[in-house]
Write a structure and sequence with these properties.
Chain lengths: 279, 94
């Protein structure tokens, strides 16, 4: 109906609405939890890149264990920490699929350390979204390998002491050293501009996988207002402090020559790898 | 490959905009976390203390529709995808 025909004003243009790939239901997440923001960004990209139909995602154990209820793609639930191993099987039996892995920091950097390192070293063509909230959110806020020095958790009530519990693991920087890895970056959901950067990082990782690249990972510094004993806005402000331990930005983008020890010549020589290797 | 069809989300298309409002807020989904309240550069969002939704929270409300510039920042931070944002009326007419 035109404005001329009815005399009514044209309906306003929609600048933003809930993405289609985000299932229309309320999540079980606590108010203000970053998992919801990260789910929404993934769903927006699945819509924009028209990837939902070909996506097979692997869910972790942790608060995001029910991710399969919220993002409208095919999902497999994996044992705690084993999502990269499950995704390896998915990848090798579904060469056309877009393979997405979603993991928390307890899942990826504690019980699943071996699986993520070896999937990365093998250059599995999967994209891992690594949600680092520095704590075991689901089980009541215990210390994780990612917990900041001095941070109080239910299992480090006096604050994390390196003499007792060691140092935070910068797992993304470690993974970026592996030849099978093509992209690693770290963003944060602290505020609207940071959220926009995370979306751009996820988009880059998704596109590298679609172009036949190797392992890609985006770490997202997220909050756990309940586990941190903060209001949601306080927890978002606190992410600035978290980023002092875990610096933000692109850590490795191999085809752009960004990253530790990247040899652009080697990349070019191996560019046809994805076509040559029968996956 | 078998694939579950994407569940269609509610699409707000033909809202009667009389008077014009720049936001549609799915108040039944709001958890009152106030991330949008903090993110809004024009301070036109607040929790509606007079209402408790089915989830048990005070949902957010747009206090001053005229003060909202449709900048979308609230929607960018909302973990519960509560907002639909419409272009300002001037832009919609042109
Ligand atoms: C084999 C096994 N060990 C331990 C647990 C208990 N457990 C469930 S979730 C979790 C930690 C999850 O933390 P994280 O991955 O950081 O997710 P978050 O909840 O913080 O998002 C643990 C230890 C389990 N479910 N299975
Ligand atoms: S416990 Fe923490 S990580 Fe889990 S849903 Fe609540 S806020 Fe989010
Ligand atoms: S669109 Fe912008 S101005 Fe309007 S309520 Fe949201 S954040 Fe505030
Ligand atoms: S960010 Fe979303 S859930 Fe939180 S108060 Fe605003 S509308 Fe409600
Ligand atoms: Mg965690």
């Amino acid at each position: 109906m035109t404005t001329e025909a009815t005399g009514a004003p044209a309906p306003p243009r929609i600048l933003y609405q809930r993405p289609r790939a985000l299932v229309d239901k309320s999540t079980h997440y606590c108010p203000g939890c970053g998992h919801g923001i990260i789910h929404r960004l993934i769903a927006e990209l699945l819509d924009e890149l028209e990837l939902a139909q070909q996506t097979i995602a692997v869910a972790p154990v942790g608060c995001s264990v029910f991710a399969y209820d919220y993002i409208a793609v095919d999902w497999i639930e994996s044992p705690h920490g084993r999502a990269p191993a499950v995704a390896t099987g998915v990848r090798r039996t579904n060469s056309d699929a877009f393979v997405l892995v979603y993991q928390g920091d307890g899942d990826l950097a504690a019980i699943g350390t071996a699986e993520i390192i070896h999937a990365a070293a093998r250059g599995e063509r999967i994209t891992t979204v690594f949600v680092n909230n520095g704590i075991y959110g689901m089980t009541g806020g215990q210390m994780a390998p990612t917990t900041l020095l001095g941070q109080k958790t239910t299992s480090s009530p006096l604050g994390r002491d390196p003499k007792l519990a060691g140092y935070p693991i910068p797992i993304s920087e470690m993974l970026a050293l592996l030849r099978g890895v093509d992209y690693v970056s770290r963003g944060s959901v602290a505020d609207p501009p940071s959220v926009g950067k995370v979306k751009a990082m996820l988009k880059r990782a998704f596109e590298i996988q679609r172009a036949g690249g190797g392992f890609t990972l985006v770490e997202v510094l997220s909050n756990c207002p309940v586990g941190w004993g903060m209001t949601a806005p306080e927890s978002m402000a606190h992410l600035a402090e978290v980023a002092e331990t875990y610096p933000l930005g692109v850590i490795l983008d191999r085809s752009k020559g960004i990253g530790p020890g990247v040899d652009p010549g080697l990349s070019t020589r191996l560019a046809g790898r994805a076509e040559e290797a029968p996956r | 490959m078998t694939t579950r069809l994407a569940d269609p989300a509610p699409r707000v298309t033909a809202v009667e905009h009389t008077p014009f409002t720049p936001l549609a807020i799915a108040t039944d989904r709001c958890k009152g976390c106030e991330l949008c309240v903090t993110a809004c550069p024009h301070h036109v969002l607040e929790l509606d203390q007079a209402v408790v939704n089915a989830l048990g929270y005070h949902p957010v409300r747009l206090v001053d529709p005229a003060g909202c510039t449709s900048c979308v920042l609230c929607a960018r931070v909302c973990p519960d995808a509560v907002f639909t944002v419409f272009a300002p009326r001037k832009e919609a007419r042109s």
